Amino acid sequence: MNKKRVYTFGNGKAEGQANMKNLLGGKGANLAEMNLIGVPVPPGFTITTEVCSEYYELGRDKVVSLLQEDVKNAIANIEQLMNATFGDIENPLLVSVRSGARASMPGMMDTILNLGLNDDVVEGLIRKTNNPRFAWDSYRRFVQMYGDVVLGMKPVNKEDIDPFEEIIEELKEERGVKLDNELSVDDLKLLVSKFKKAVKNQTGHDFPTSAYDQLWGAICAVFDSWMNDRAILYRKMEGIPAEWGTAVNVQAMVFGNMGETSATGVCFSRDAGSGEDLFNGEYLINAQGEDVVAGIRTPQQITKVGSQRWAELACVSEEERLAKYPSMEEAMPSIYAELDALQTKLENHYKDMQDMEFTVQEGKLWFLQTRNGKRTGFAMVKIAMDLLREGMIDEKTALFRVEPNKLDELLHPVFDKKALKVASVIAKGLPASPGAATGQIVFFADDAAEWHAKGHKVIMVRIETSPEDLAGMAVAQGILTARGGMTSHAAVVARGMGKCCVSGAGALKIDYKNKTMQVGDLVLKEGDYISLNGSNGEVYLGQIQTKEAELSDDFRELMTLADKYTKLKVRTNADTPCDAQIARNFGAVGIGLCRTEHMFFEGEKIKAMREMILSEDTEGRVKALSKILPYQQADFKGIFRAMDGCPVTVRLLDPPLHEFVPHDLKGQEDMAAMMGVSVKKIQERVESLSEQNPMLGHRGCRLGNTYPEITEMQTLAILGAALELKAEGIHTYPEIMVPLIGNVVEFQQQEAVIRTTAEKLFAEKGDSIEFTVGTMIEVPRAALTADKVASSAEFFSFGTNDLTQMTFGYSRDDIASFLPVYLDKKILQVDPFQVLDQEGVGQLVRMATEKGRSIRPDLKCGICGEHGGEPSSVKFCHRVGLNYVSCSPFRVPIARLAAAQAAIEG
Ligand code: ADP
Ligand code: MG
Ligand code: MG
């Protein structure tokens, strides 16, 4: 079988094209495509990604012999087009050897330029070009790159110095110069001989002189680089499979280092930061390849506008700018015009923002690469909507041009970029809730409230948080914890509040007694300033300027567009009128989960709640509950009012009661005084409430079933609030939700309490409200018996946090201790508390939905776990046929976009 391993391109022809990325890699496919559409590209060829797999199966020698013939022919093709000969002395052809995977892996693998040079060829090149400086500059670059990449001279440790760089530095010091281009031709020559000596010393071999030996060395090195540590790590981070392999591109060299009419640069068809439709980029005169990104010399701007903006930021005067750093538009106007026309052509062709590389050789422009440019969330939205308006793409395409998760960036405060540059990172944790926060350290909720009341901005620092810290978290700018994962209490609550949070920063030693936190030798105390970056988990010392997010018109238009295609509704998880309002502004059409326990923590409420819990009999509980009722009713009124006209699912009391009682002596003493009993009595009750395994203990509907008076009170509060609002003309659609059932009888008995209470209330008030009673599906048994459950329950809401916990048997509070190992060992691909496990937990969701609807065809099904705001999980919910997803307010736009994409994907 004759498999095609090599694809040639050049002079307006190509065997490949843009849609062959899997086979030719992104770079190779686009080099071919550029040829086909008339963009000038140096001729060359691409060895396919399949050969990379063969390389790892068959070994080097076998693959080299398989390729031998094809590569010789392809080189001959370049020779003919370039009118030069590979390995020839008088008229040499030089090539570059470049890696290129399917997905771009910037800077991960290596490129070798100027291949084909040796001591004789360099002399021939001088005779051919009459430019000894250029020839020796190219040669010394080649020996260094080849030594580093192919001969393994590059140090593995980033901290260690590259032996070639060391030689250059030494020589520059000797000569008293700063920049490479200040070295003389003789110096460059000297560098080559020193480099080769270093190669001989370190590897024991002479530097290869035959062009073909060099070529095979370089091709194999590119294949080898697919498995280097950097590349492996990058693939792991980006989820790129090792089987994909890399292609190898061999391409005729064009030279940006031939003098003042030569240059090299990188450019973007739009601004990758802001999304502005502004051509921009950087270039360097008389330079090669990586010089622009390497930061050896200060690159100059391509456009005049860009150059002027740059000068302003760099405090460079207009005269100095023109003299030292003119834009390409000013310095090389005709080349600039050509470049500008071609970048437009490429953007129009690919219908997306392009990131391009080019080189100018003695006044002639060549393109070396183009790809769809990476961009910020802001730019993503702006570019998608601009392209749509320009008629370049259609609505559906525009919706897919934005990654839902990237919308997060648009919704939270951000750090001032300049300020962030000089900030020092003192610790790193998990990016638990995005955004930027800066403030003074406090360790306790009371302190947070106190400092906040005095007008301070605070960061709440805790080992971990619990519901008692809620009030503190609410007033803090951000939350930092030493323990806990992405679904720890701190993380979930912070995301719900749209507040920045870094969790699980293990390096922190927090001392509550002395109110200090220590990282290494650094000790910070209450009141010291720190800053948090919830988007990458970094903790900085001191204050860093932040700015509020502003929602752009483009963002709003994108959301409107999403709604046009969506089938899945997006609701929010909200426990306060303020959160409900935020979510409504982001487009939520209801509340999918209103937790009632958070309402109990403020001031008098917690006292009445504790009194209820600590009561010994029903009578005592009823008395205490009657104190809670008006508070709870008022809370519901606030939320219902904010959600006028929308459904609100209220979950009955869920957490274990011991979370509400005082565990410290002072709290217990206060409690005893208030209730008129002994401290000992209180302590005994607290003790009796403690459980071995509270997550599986006395919580959820088990509370309501053992203390029906709680359910009664909550029903009165919910429906009482709705009735009062009805009188004001506000429409409320309460959905009362029983948590944590596993057995239909658990549900039925609660339902009976709710309905009886409602009847009594309606009779008493002479008015009524329509409401439904449904359940959470969060215990596997409930999912397994969903048909039975649906015979009574009017709706299902999948509580996938608990459902994941109970399906995997992973405690969500303790997963942090083994999750990293599981991810590392590939036992798990992702954290199942963040991304819904479609295979296992998802099967329960699908099955329960189907079983439920087999009994009750119009059964309303939704999801209210953390997964409701995670794009791949949202798409799954669409496919399963759920009616809605519910997520924290700041994830509502993300879910809306993901839902639209899911509907379009079908
Ligand atoms: P990366 O993927 O790291 O960008 P590239 O293969 O694109 O690596 O090459 C690195 C640099 O060398 C780029 O600036 C590119 O434009 C330049 N380069 C690559 N091949 C050639 C060539 N044949 N002629 C001139 N410059 C080249
Ligand atoms: Mg490149
Ligand atoms: Mg639950």
Short description, anyone?
The protein has 906 residues and is α/β, with parallel strands linked by helices.
Please explain how this structure is put together.
- The protein has an 8-stranded mixed sheet. The chain has an 8-stranded parallel beta barrel with strand order 27-28-29-30-31-32-33-34, surrounded by 7 helices. A 6-stranded antiparallel sheet has the order 2-1-3-8-6-7, sandwiched between helices.
- It is α/β, with parallel strands linked by helices and 906 residues long.
- The longest helix has 25 residues, at 618-642.
- The radius of gyration is 33 Å and the shape is elongated.
- It has 37 helices and 34 strands.
- The protein folds into 4 domains: 74-252, Acyl-CoA Binding Protein (Up-down Bundle); 263-375, D-amino Acid Aminotransferase, Chain A, domain 1; 413-547, 3-Layer(bba) Sandwich (Glucose Oxidase, domain 1), CATH 3.50.30; 566-656 and 691-905, TIM Barrel, CATH 3.20.20.60.
- Helix content is 47%, strand content 17%.
- The protein binds adenosine-5'-diphosphate (ADP) and magnesium ion (MG) (2 copies).
